């Protein structure tokens, strides 16, 4: 299995070490993937354009105002696409979340690796979006979250951690555009989070890492009466889950 450029399979469970953390030897002997991790992959190649029916995992629609979810046509190298649009009403939202896959971030005890593949149209000063995980819907300033962000006035992608409303926000140095990009965030067994755009490390954040429940959630909003579009091609994550 491949997520965000890294491989995850049972052959990596050697000497009590998994790709994203240390597993006690007594657990490794189980050779049971379900006992050591939680994995989700979503290609958005199924489901319906309806709340709790998007994709294979039943993603929830996060829409307000004239926001709408629709199925889009696949293109070369991007099988399965959903279209999240704000519609033409100002301050509308279009997005999706996976509440059932929420992860609690208790300090240094949880490792997580997630990847979104998305495209945004257009790039302008009236478009804002978050791509990642957060605990509050329909806002670019959630109480808790780990995400990539473009505020309406930004010309670069920013990397953000928020914990209890406290924010650490770092400029990635990568200019926003209308192409497909891989947005990956990796939090290991420490409180450090690495942010990658198209497999290149663009920021490392060690402050404001959330301690509360966050969900896979990405959404787009508009600050002018014109439709803005976020195309979802892929989502995947692996989370430490030492069960039992």
Number of strands: 20
Radius of gyration: 18 Å
Number of alpha- plus pi-helical segments: 2
Shape: globular
Q: Biggest β-sheet: count, sense, barrel?
A: 8 strands, antiparallel
Give the low-pLDDT segments: 1-17, 25-31
What share of residues are in beta strands?
Answer: over 45%
Mean pLDDT: 86
**Cα end-to-end separation:** 24 Å
Order of helices and strands: EEEEHHEEEEEEEEEEEEEEEE
Counting helices, strands and paired strands, the structural category is mainly beta
- Percent helix: under 10%
Can you tell me about this structure?
The protein is mostly beta strands. It contains two helices and 20 strands. Strands 5, 7, 8, 11, 16, 17, 18 and 20 form an eight-stranded antiparallel beta sheet that branches. Strands 6, 9, 10, 12, 13, 14, 15 and 19 form an eight-stranded antiparallel beta sheet that branches. 43% of the residues are buried. The model is unreliable at 1-17 and 25-31 (pLDDT under 50).
Relevant terms:
244 residues; mainly beta; eight-stranded antiparallel beta sheet; 2 helices; 20 strands; globular; disordered N terminus
What topology emerges from the helices and strands here?
Elements: E1 2-3, E2 6-7, E3 17-18, E4 21-22, H1 25-28, H2 33-36, E5 37-42, E6 60-61, E7 68-72, E8 81-85, E9 93-97, E10 103-104, E11 112-121, E12 127-134, E13 145-150, E14 156-163, E15 166-175, E16 181-187, E17 193-197, E18 200-205, E19 213-222, E20 229-240
